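Bug #77: duplicate submission created two jobs. Keeping one. Sequence:
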Amino acid sequence: MKAARFSRFGGPEVLEIAELPDPHPGPGEVRIAVRAAGVSVSDWKKRQGQMDQELPQTLGYEAAGVVDELGEGVHDVAVGDRVFGFSGDGAAQAELAVLSCYAPIPPSLDFAAAAALPAAIETATRALDQLGVNGGTVLINGASGSIGSAAVQFAVVRGARVIGTASPANHDYLRSLGAEPVAYGAGLAERVRALAPGGVDRALDVAGSGVLPELVELAGGPEHVVTVADFAGARKCGVTFSRGDSGRALYVLSEIGALVKSGRFAAPVVRTFPLAEVAQAHRAGEAGARGKLVLLVG
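Kept job's structure:
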């Protein structure tokens, strides 16, 4: 099968499409013929040598496609079913991928939209769980991206009033998701207090833009703030840094279909590239392209 990989660390130019052996699912896993695979920040961090040091490395933790092989003990899906989910071995950007956690694709979504979901909805749900969001007022810093927009919608479903930071160009988008937008940058705390004079109950940092001190002040203490993007700032401010190895919210994969069907969740904006143009997708991501980047396969 063809798969994206790199054999040395560096810029997007080190990426290649290589011929690799077909993978096979283990117990409880399924193999899919990949139709679309998500691209995330972790992909270019791996490529730059900031994560695993082994070489060569494949890429991709989230994908959507059609089941073509079942692992032992799998009875909840059948060959030919459309599913999306996580590749535990980080090799989803390929013609075939083994999914260790999966769910049916909501009928109204195409493969590209489904491939954009797993990391965003799991990260957003995990962070909201850690914050204990169940009503109240929630501030989400970086609310217009794939994770931020998911967090906005999930917080609204949980009965929260949501204030979200974004550039002015994305304010109408946030309103469409049910959030009250404010501009990020200097003076953020004052703009938030204009909407919520008493501050907020919880704050989630998705952008990692150095605003944790302001979020701590607005939320009344570091115990009411979670970041998924600022590890150094979290340590400095005593804020929880949410990471997958502390317990993942995988249950959201099986719940998202009902939210999509009811109109309470809209998939993020997707920008697609052919698998062969994976390097271009990395360049777009590192340049700050809006929307979720997805590779189309086949």
